[in-house]
Amino acid sequence: MRASFKIFRVFGIDVEVHISLLILLVLLIYAFSVSPFPYGFANFPLSERIILSSMAAVGLFASILAHELGHSLVARRYGVRIRGIMLFIFGGVAMMDELPKKPREELVVAISGPATSFGIAVVSALLSSIPVAELSAFFLLFGYLNFILAIFNLIPAFPMDGGRILRSFLAEKRSYAEATKIAAEIGRALAIFMAIFGIFTNPWLILIALFVYIGANEEERLVLLENVLGRVRVADVMNTEVVTVTPEMTVSEVIDLILKTKHLGFPVVEGERLVGIITLHDIIGVEPEERVGNIMSREVVAVSPNQSAFEAFKIMSEMGIGRLPVVEHGRVVGIVSRSDLMRIKEILEALEVMCWRKRGSS
């Protein structure tokens, strides 16, 4: 069962909803319906409470979508490819290929989300003066929610916008990797403080703190990984001794190859041209006499020798695969695996430490 579903497309960007969002929507509707004015609609009749609470809960995530669209549209102006927007239990995230590395550009992209939320809050505050009690209460709460959304995202911790704003300022005088490390450390410290505070006040803060702590670690890991693997080409890491199969081979022959090589998948070549991929998953439950060409996947994900090793790592992570064929002019010239990338990462990091120690002793 899929955990997320595409609901529509706006400005050429796919918007997906994670099923965890449904849990939060129910909790928000209940919370708004039992909270007194100005934080809810408990003062209204039951039917009006349900309608207003549902509008506020859905409106909150419409605001989160607007917040993420603010990031996405500004990032797109700097040439960043937006793969989509995901709405989930902790809010939303714009899925970008990468953030701009120039500090000023990252600052503009990071601040565009909170600016959008502040703008919605101001408009809602003005609309709350409407002389209709129900609409006035709705817009007052809607403005309050957007104000909190903007302030919360300005907390200087990844993955919130405040962490990226902090990094953009630090990166003016430090390297991008060093700025990320400092911002991540601040984010982890804030997460620990938030968790301790949540123990004595609100358990929900503990979950948010965990989300912040994991986000800070992940941001630091990816940037440091890019700093190392971004300097290496796939050609420098790939294994040129590639085991391939042909479309005419049978499933039983592929099983023999799996047992012999301990590999779970193979490129399928016709002549020297890559035409597909066959994996252990493809052959499960298939008759041994069946030919590879009838069951192979023709949607091949591959990299070129001149791409960076970090690009290969990102593709593997996004696709959930452990190996990628390396293709040049339609011909398979190598194979690169996640273990290859992690091995070269460890080697380069060890060499950097040795060079640092050597400089320190001289």
If you had to describe this structure to a student in words, what would you say it looks like?
With 362 residues, the protein is an alpha+beta fold. Helix 6 (176-200) packs antiparallel against helix 7 (203-229). The strands form three sheets. Strands 1-2-3-4 form a four-stranded mixed β-sheet. Strands 5-6 form a two-stranded antiparallel sheet. It contains 13 helices and eight strands. It is 59% helix and 14% strand. It starts with a strand and ends with a helix.
In terms of topology, how is this protein built?
Elements: E1 4-10, E2 13-18, H1 20-34, H2 46-77, E3 82-88, E4 91-96, H3 103-127, H4 133-153, H5 161-170, H6 176-200, H7 203-229, H8 234-237, H9 251-261, E5 265-270, E6 273-279, H10 280-283, H11 292-295, H12 309-319, E7 323-328, E8 331-337, H13 338-361
Helix pairs in contact: 1-2, 2-3, 2-4, 3-4, 3-5, 5-6, 6-7
Order of helices and strands: EEHHEEHHHHHHHEEHHHEEH
Unreliable parts: none
Strand content: 5-15%
Shape: globular
Give the CA-CA distance, first to last residue: 60 Å
The strand count comes to: 8
Helix content: 55-70%
- The pLDDT mean sits at 85
In short:
The chain has 13 helices and eight strands. The chain is α+β, with helices and mostly antiparallel strands. The protein is globular.
Task: List descriptors.
two-stranded antiparallel ribbon, alpha+beta, 362 residues, 59% helix, 13 helices, 4-stranded mixed sheet
